[in-house]
Amino acid sequence: MFRPKLPTMPQPTDTVTPPAVVEPTTITPGTSVSPPTQAPVAGPARPMVQLTPGTALALVGGGTAVVLVVGAVLVSMLLAVAITAASVAVCAVVLRSLLASQHRR
After folding, report:
1. Exposure on the CB side of residue 29, measured as CA atoms within 13 A
2. In angstroms, rounded to a whole number, what is the distance separating the alpha carbons of residues 52 and 75?
3. Burial (Cβ within 10 Å: 0-12, 13-18, ≥19) of residue 46
4. SS3 content of the chain, % helix, strand, coil (to 5)
5. Could you tell me the maximum CA-CA distance found in the chain, to the nearest angstrom?
6. Coil vs helix vs strand at 86
7. pTM of the shown model
8. Sign of the four-CA dihedral 96, 99, 102, 104
9. What are the pLDDT digits (tens) for 49-72?
10. Looking at per-residue confidence, does 94 or 25 come out higher?
């Protein structure tokens, strides 16, 4: 039960082909082989983006809307943190005054 089970190595199911033999080539000194010349490759044809006044106005409007929404979210988060900090401070002052009044009696 507590002895580990070692997996058995499965036997190959198909025939094994021997590796291909690569024969070395001889290099004769004094002969120079010029590299093959390649024709210049033209870049892929990309469609041109046309900015009309309408699309530029839409982009500016969309960017402005995104900035305003993100700004509103950040300001509301900052306001929530400030309100929470103020309420914790008020609670601390009230608890301090209650504890101080108990020691006076």
Report:
1. 0
2. 35
3. exposed
4. 50, 0, 50
5. 113
6. helix
7. 0.45
8. negative
9. 788 889 999 999 999 999 999 999
10. 94
* Token pair belonging to 31: 């002969």
d(CA 31, CA 42): 33
12 versus 26: the higher-pLDDT residue is 26
The secondary structure of residue 52, as a DSSP letter, is: -
Instruction: Kindly state the tokens that stand for 7.
Output: 């997996």
The Cα–Cα gap between 71 and 63 comes to 12
> How many Å apart are CA 76 and CA 81, to the nearest integer?
9
Give me 41's structure tokens: 């490759």
**11-44: b (≥16 Cβ within 10 Å) or e:** eeeeeeeeeeeeeeeeeeeeeeeeeeeeeeeeee
- pLDDT 10s digits, 35-48: 666 766 666 677 77
